[in-house]
Every structure is written in structure tokens, then in C-alpha cells.
């Protein structure tokens, strides 16, 4: 049933991704592990939760890196289960892997501004609770697909849009970004839902227009045939990042459209495996993770 939900979510959510070949199948622990849920934010009667996948007990001897994923859905819908398999993979690699709930229009009548505020709250909460979670507060990555990729990108680029009742001395900025077909140029994005969710304030939450020195290192997976978020928009974002002196790696998937990275989307989960392994290598390059290579392979 869970697999069916994940597969169906591919078609209803506003997300995407792309990757680099590894030729290695990703193993899942879904039959043996379930995420625990913790409330990170309460707004009126609404409780927002983090779905947390923890590493095995034997991996918990020292502080661990964390990654927080934000689901896609056009700032309108979506479900944290969309990133359960990615979380499962990274938990198997020793990370505290989290899929976050955040407010969306269909359930809460909110705009994109609340989406971003919740994203920032999630990163801040993980950092504030780092000791309890066994997390290294200096190794927290934000990830997401499409609208969720936009939320993640905003946590790394946008100043402000913070909840005033939180401890703003604790940073809401992640230390790395892992983005799947992210909406990074809101100003030029031609979608009806953008006009509805951003009104006349597009530039305020357009990551491309807020790139400057100091934005966290970023990897982007994107399909060249994406008709929802044009490939050229992430090319411009990556160029701006590099010109500002930031690390930005763009991995293109030829002929792939929006959302192809999802678990169950293609035969043998080829794109899913390629993207998580490329993200793994990227996080290794930032010293979040140790290489998957064994001594015999070196």
C-alpha cells in the first residue's frame, strides 16, 4: 500500500529531479524501519511534523549529518511520503533523514510565503534540537523537488520570511542544498499557480534573484525535457551561483520530464538510484558522508 501511495504521488505532485549514473541498485529498509514523527511547529490548531528516519543504533556514536526534504505539489498540495525512499537511503548511509510537512493551499489556504516560512522553521528546529536528535548542527542539508525544491532553495538564499516568535539567533540556513527540478526563477515561471500563490510578489521569493556570496553549496538534478520548470532556468541559477563564488553542480537528464527522479517512476528505479547516488557523492565531497567505496575498490 505504501509503495502504491508513493507511485501515485509522482503524478499528483509538483516535483522533479535528475542524476548521474552509478549502475548500482539502491537497497531499501522500508520493511524494517518506519519514520517517527515529531511536531516542529504549531500555528493555531495546525501541527506540522517532521517524519524522521534515523540511522541504525550502531551508527549513533557521534553527531550525524542531517537532510530535510520538502515535497512537491506546486505550493498547493503534496505529501511528505514522496521523499520516504530518499530518506530511507540516506538514513542507511548514517544521516538523520527527514521529510517535512509544511502548509499548502489545499489544506491550509496559504500562499508560497507560508511554505517558505515553514521550511525555514523546519531547518531552525532541527538545528535547535541537534543535540537531542544526535545531529551535527553544522551539517544540515535541505532538499526537495519542484515547489519543495523552491522551498529548500529559499532556505539557502532568501533573507527574512522568518517566524517572529522563533529564536532568530538560531540560523534557518542549511549548510548544503540538494535540489530536484527546483523552481528557482519565480519571476519568469509561466504557471497559473505561480500567479495565485505569489500574487505580485514573485521576486521576493525568487532564489535566482537573491543569489550572493555565501549561499550553501548546491547540487541540482533536472530533466532537459521538463515542461513545468524549464531546464534553462536552473542553468541561469547555476551560472549566477558560480559567478557569486558559490558551489553549484548541475546534473542534466537528457529527455527527462518533471518528476522522473521519484521512486517507482521508471524501470528498475534507474533514475531514483542515479540521483541518490550522485547526491551521496556530492555530500561526500562536502564531508557530510564518508565514501561508499570499500578499501578493495580504492
Q: What is the 3D shape?
A: globular
Question: Which structural category fits the helices and strands?
Answer: alpha/beta
CATH fold call: Rossmann fold
The total beta strand count reads 8
Mean pLDDT value: 88
Alpha-carbon distance between the two ends: 41 Å
Instruction: Provide the domain count.
Output: 1
CATH C-level class: Alpha Beta
- Secondary-structure element pattern, one letter each: HEEEHEHHHEHEHEHEH
Strand order of the largest sheet: 1-2-4-3-5-6-7-8
Please give a quick description of this structure.
With 298 residues, this protein is an alpha/beta fold. Helix content is 31%, strand content 19%. The chain has an 8-stranded mixed beta sheet with strand order 1-2-4-3-5-6-7-8, with helices on both faces.
Task: Please give a structural write-up.
Mean pLDDT is 88; it is low at 1-25, 28-32 and 294-298. The chain has helices spanning 2-12, 84-92, 105-108, 112-128, 130-133, 147-157, 192-198, 231-243, 270-285, and strands spanning 36-43, 46-53, 64-70, 96-100, 135-145, 176-180, 217-223, 248-253. It is globular. Strand 7, helix 8 and strand 8 (248-253) form a beta-alpha-beta unit. Helix 4 (112-128) crosses helix 6 (147-157). The chain has a single domain (2-293), classed as Alpha/Beta hydrolase fold, catalytic domain (Rossmann fold, 3-Layer(aba) Sandwich), CATH 3.40.50. With 298 residues, it is of the alpha/beta class. The longest helix is centred in the middle third of the chain and has 17 residues, at 112-128. It has an eight-stranded mixed beta sheet, sandwiched between helices.
